[in-house]
Each structure stands twice: as C-alpha cells, then as structure tokens.
Write a structure and sequence with these properties.
The protein is an alpha/beta fold. It contains 9 helices and 5 strands; from the N terminus they run H-E-H-E-H-H-H-E-H-E-H-H-E-H. The longest helix is centred in the last third of the chain and has 24 residues. The chain starts with a helix and ends with a helix. The protein binds adenosine-5'-diphosphate, cytidine-5'-diphosphate (CDP) and magnesium ion.
C-alpha cells in the first residue's frame, strides 16, 4: 500500500523485521543519566541485546559512510540526526541479530524519531524505561565520562540539555500518557539504580514465561 517508496522500504527492511516480531524496550533519559551503564547490566542479567542509537551513529561516522560528516556535525552541535538515518541503522542492527529482545537506548529522541520508527517498522515498545536525573548530576557525570567524545564538553552539553528538554521530554510525556513509562530515580549510585531496574524486568519476564 502507499507509495512505491513506502512499498520498497517495506520490502527491504520492514519485512525482515515483521518476520522477526522483536520485543523492544526504549531506554530514555537525559544525556549522562546512565542509560548505557544500566543497559549493560540489563544485557548481562536478562539477555537483551543493547542498541545505542548514539553508538550506531558514531560507528557510521567511523565507517566512512557518505552521511558521516553530516552525522559528526549534528553530534558536535547536540542536534538530532534525521530519523531516516538512525532508523536504517537500528533496523539493520535488529535484522542482523539473532536475538528477539532489544533495548533501544537514546531513541526516540524527538517526535519525528518516534512517529517515523512506528510508521516504518510497525513496532511499539513493550515499555519505556526512563532514567530521571537532575541536570547538575548529569553534567557532572558527562564531564567525568572520559570516553573521548567530542560532545562531552560544557558548550555541547548545554546544547544537548536544551534539546533534551525541548524535544525529548515531550516524547516521554507522550508515552506517559499511554501508561508506558517506567520511571527510575537515576540520581542514586549505579547499584541502587540497577536494583530498581531489576524489579521492572523480573516480573515482566516471569509474566512472559507463564
Ligand atoms: N548511577 C550513577 N552514578 C554515578 N555515575 C554514573 C551512574 N550511572 C552512570 N554513571 C557514569 O556517568 C557517565 C554517563 O553514564 P552513561 O551510562 O554513559 O549515560 P548515558 O548513556 O545516559 O549518557 C559514565 O561515566 C558512567 O560511568
Ligand atoms: N536518536 C538519536 C540518538 C543520538 N543522536 C545523536 O547522538 C548524540 C549522542 O547520543 P548518545 O545517546 O550517545 O548520548 P548520551 O545520552 O548517551 O550521552 C546526540 O546528542 C545526538 O546528536 C541522534 O541524533 N539521534
Ligand atoms: Mg549513552
């Protein structure tokens, strides 16, 4: 149905995903709230595959892709890359992985990300894991992250916070209005945050098994 472009896109990507029918959890929260850290814990304990949108975009820059320069400039400015680029990377990563359970970290980051992902893949998240953390704590963590990231400087961090407030929080609000948000106090130490995360995953997994 729809345009030829839509049909083609379904044939090349949508069909691979609809066959898979993957289970997806969106992991959201401000920059530095601890998304990547907690995803690593969830992978270890609950068998999900972690897909960080930011990591996929950074790998795309490194691969020498034709979009690389554009992505690099957007990340440096703290701006959100057009969803068609990010969604293609996510679709490919899901299709190529044998697992059927994915943590999608740092996506959707704006309304365009959200609506396009749903339209292209037909996938709705099981729930949205939301790491709630004060800006001062996030700023402190980002300045101490030491991963050599070009966007972990105070100037870009301020831009990323603005984008988060203006564009990403409304997406969390959208899912909240649908009862899909599981909010975690992310200002606590890593272990305590993970204790709270665990309680969300254990009952969900048990329910799925019975
Ligand atoms: N609960 C926490 N308390 C203190 N530091 C944390 C906590 N969670 C993560 N960190 C540290 O903060 C930085 C940002 O964490 P990260 O998981 O990369 O966040 P995000 O992916 O949300 O940007 C990292 O250096 C990480 O080690
Ligand atoms: N859905 C997404 C996710 C990240 N990005 C870009 O990648 C940057 C880093 O994202 P990230 O998720 O790795 O950052 P953190 O929240 O982990 O600090 C963002 O500031 C955006 O520039 C994007 O454009 N679209
Ligand atoms: Mg991250």
């Amino acid at each position: 149905m729809g345009t030829a472009v839509e049909a083609a896109s379904k044939e090349t990507t949508g069909s691979a995903l609809s066959q898979k029918n993957p289970k997806v959890i969106f992991v959201l929260g401000g920059p530095g709230s601890g998304k990547g850290t907690q995803c690593a814990n969830i992978v270890e304990h609950f068998g999900y595959t972690h897909l960080s949108a930011g990591d996929l975009l950074r790998a795309e820059i490194k691969s020498g892709s034709e979009n690389g320069t554009m992505i690099q400039n957007m990340i440096k400015e703290g701006k959100i890359v057009p969803s068609e680029v990010t969604i293609k990377l996510l679709e490919k990563a899901i299709a190529e992985n044998e697992n059927d359970k994915f943590l999608i970290d740092g996506f959707p980051r704006n309304e365009e990300n959200r609506a396009a992902f749903e339209a292209v893949t037909g996938i709705a998240p099981e729930f949205v894991l939301f790491f709630d953390c004060p800006a001062e704590e996030m700023e402190k963590r980002l300045l101490g992250r030491n991963q050599g990231r070009e966007d972990d400087n105070i100037e870009t961090i301020r831009k990323r916070f603005r984008v988060y407030m203006e564009s990403s929080l409304p997406v969390i609000e959208y899912y909240n209005s649908k009862g899909k948000v599981r909010k975690i106090d992310a200002a606590k130490p890593v272990e305590e945050v993970f204790e709270a995360v665990k309680t969300l995953f254990t009952p969900v997994n048990e329910k799925a098994a019975t």
